Amino acid sequence: MSPAPIYAVVDIETTGTAMDGSNRIIQFSCVLVKDNKIANIFNTMVNPLMKIPEEVQQLTGITPKDVRKAPLFDDLAGTIYELLQGTVFVAHNINFDYRFLNTELERCGYPSLEIDGIDTVQLSQILLPTLPSYRLAYLGSYLNIVHSHPHRADSDASVTAQLLLFLLKQIENLPIQLLEQAVRFRSSLLFQTGECFLNALRLKQKNANVVPDYLENVSGMLLRRIEKNIKFDQSSKFPRTDAEKKKLFLNFLNWRKAQSEMMNRVFAILSQSGSERAILEAPTGLGKTLGYMIPAAYASQAGKGTVISTATTALQTQLLEQVIPLMRQILPFEFEVAVFKGSQNYIDLGKFARTLKQVQNSQTRLLQLRLLVWLTITKTGDLTELHLTKYQNPLFDEIRHHGPASLDSSDTFYSVDFVHRQQLLEKNADLIITNHAYLVRHAAELGGLKKRDLIVDEAQHLGEIALKNNRDVIDFDELKILCDTLLVKMESKVSFSLKNLSAQHFLTIAESKEIIKKVQLIDQRIPKLRDKLYKRFVNETLFTTGFYEETLRLDKFFGFVKENLGDIKQISKAAFSLQRIFKQLTIRFSNFKAENRIDRTAEEFLYDFCSQLQGLIESLKTWERLSLDELEELSTEILVSISLPLHQPGAHLRLRFSLFRTKNFLEPNVYANFKHVLFVGASLVLPSSPYYMLDQLDLAHETQVISFKGIFDYRKQALALLVADAPDVSQNASEYTEYIGKTLENIILHNKRRMMVLFNSLTMIQKIYDHLKETGITEKRLVLAQGITGSNEKVVKSFKLAESAILLGSGAFWEGIDLPKDKLELLVITRLPFQSPDTLLNRAKYSLIEKQGLNSFTEIALPETMMRLKQGFGRLIRTPEDKGVLIVLDSRVISRTYGSRLRTAFPEELPVRIVETKELETYLHSFWQK
């Protein structure tokens, strides 16, 4: 590629994407770019002499009328071929445009193009590493490039040309060290995309180059320099009156009375001298996040600090990227924020540096380039900043951080390690943002010596997450596999082994023998214990499904442990010895590397060996559950169970220790570490089950509950249609499935609104999706189905972008998805969301309730379902401008005696109509007419 090329930025529209000769070009557009300016534009419609599919017409807006009088590609081929000679071909997804164009040129008797090419998708991924999407429409919007007709070749080519100019400027501004790294990896990029970095490097090498002030070079890796914040004494009075808040919020927020009241209540509680627990029910649309964040920031000026915990890492990111910047604009004082989440979310710089020296495939090299640019931007090292929908590349497994315990103070990257930085930030933070899973595991350190305050947002999830994070598993077969893998590596006769390490004086022969002996001991005793456990507790007469799972009686399990205490203790001692050896090896490894006392082969062996040994040690941590001291302290809230997948070769036998209810757990283990604890959410209070959430959160029944008035006018904004003649799902499953399929088909045919359909199982989604496909609905409308058409993230993203789409979802789709305004107008609940009573945890919970003389259905199952219904309905109305209809296709909400209690889950002001299936169309038409 010449230093000053002419770029031909090309986009084509086609009748289809298959390159088998069955499709044709319907529009060709080329923008010529020279000397960083648009020099010329060539655009033409093309008559394909074939039908343009309906979906292509909808996507591009190109109709048969538009191409009827257009030239054939046969007549344009020569002009296009000549136009592109001597240029660099540029496209957004070059693999499609370049290859399709060549196919058509060859069909018309011309040779394939043999010109250089650049892919703007890959350049965008490298240079803009934190964007959630690299679709051209999104990039145009992000860069404020006018995109008048997305999916039209002329508009797309124009946007791509402007994108190219922006990206080339970004490359020019990269530090020389980063350009050198990109040039080393350039062969992994598509066509000649990597040559852009080489051209920029050549220009930069002619000038003196220094690392920019905001970056630092650590062992050849460029990182964002740590900013040292100087904290000044500040004193700002909390705005108690409406007038003071209106003045503070001017130009930033619309004043809302309920939000103002919430701020006052939160600040009042956080300012008390005692220790308070309170629930705050803040309906959707009230602005609850700022309703607690702003008073927390004011209260934290006293020097104590507040921990904010939310349900997921995604919500943490939302607080950090959207809420904190707005608060910094509003508030008249500075405040420090620290974010805490599991160490696995962060990049380990040392591990990443090692992967750069290893042989990698093209996809991994692209990802590494993206990460290298990201490291010059990120202040946190949090991998979720990359906004990937999946983190499935094996590279992530190699570079994820393993926590503070894996840090070595002598390591080159120790002082700039991101987890280490977070620990330092915590000491001076006014606000600490974490998630429920991290909170449950690290409550004592988050609370601190001064006992910070705690605000739990989306508090309805805390109990469930606490249970998930208090489950320990001993996987006997996994332990055996880990031991076997290590032994093969250590004793290999054909490749590098511990014997070779001894030859380089890294290990003595005695040390090598000790490591092998300890691993062998575990390797031999684990299978013996597995067989005994199987014979004692696995009842083969219960093998009725594909998965065996049974609860163990604690007294019988205790007896089994006593009988096999010798083997159990021997494994515990071996595990302890391996932990001690591992610590010694990591320190020695760092010293030997620093002094160049081992060769490259030994170094690579030790990286792998230490990683495998650490994996075994981590898996053995749960072995302590088998100690007599631990077993004697087992509370009645702990469930011990055994599981085994059936009819699978190499199935793993697992022993599980599970907390099955939060009573007597959350208060002593979490809340006791904080002064004030506030629980915030839009779905915390159930009028007909006032104590349900209090019990789930391990709170006293006299805990203060504060409810704020909602801002939505449900009488005008929404309507609920409860279908009375739907077949009873508990009586005839096949009849019910057929009914759901036909009813949804009818609703879809008569409504063009965006629609989400909620199910209780993926199996049912598959059946309904198949039905809609068979009846041709999927050809007329975009139907997105969880587990079928893509990942949850991809399904949601596509649903938000597409007009009149239909989403079939279960599980996570009942809550936590924000679809404001016309993003969701019709919500269908196909079945009441009762949980299965047959799971081990539910059986244990129900049994405990019934032993107390209470009814498990009314005390647990019904309130759980009401909470789920409340959360499901919450997807429909998100802003005061929203309008939408809820349809419930489960007649039990009307016909059963408990139906009246279930209906209290909906807002009191919501108009509810009991209808027959045939009346749905009329009611829907009437609602939208209004």
TrEMBL record:
InterPro entries: ATP-dep_Helicase_C (IPR006555), DEAD/DEAH_box_helicase_dom (IPR011545), DinG (IPR006310), DinG/Rad3-like (IPR045028), DnaQ (IPR006054), Helic_SF1/SF2_ATP-bd_DinG/Rad3 (IPR014013), Helicase_ATP-bd (IPR014001), P-loop_NTPase (IPR027417). The gene is dinG. Keywords: ATP-binding, DNA replication, DNA-directed DNA polymerase, Exonuclease, Helicase, Hydrolase, Nuclease, Nucleotide-binding, Nucleotidyltransferase, Transferase. It comes from the Bacteria. Its EC number is 3.1.-.-. ATP binds at A282, P283, T284, G285, L286, G287, K288, T289. A motif (DEAH box) lies at residues 457-460. It comes from Liquorilactobacillus oeni DSM 19972. One of its GO terms (biological process) is DNA replication. This is 3'-5' exonuclease DinG. 3'-5' exonuclease. Signal peptide: none annotated. Belongs to the helicase family. DinG subfamily. Type 2 sub-subfamily. PANTHER family: DNA REPAIR DEAD HELICASE RAD3/XP-D SUBFAMILY MEMBER (PTHR11472), REGULATOR OF TELOMERE ELONGATION HELICASE 1 (PTHR11472:SF34). Its cofactor is [4Fe-4S] cluster. GO terms for molecular function: 3'-5' exonuclease activity; 5'-3' DNA helicase activity; ATP binding; ATP hydrolysis activity; DNA binding; DNA-directed DNA polymerase activity. It holds the Pfam family DEAD.
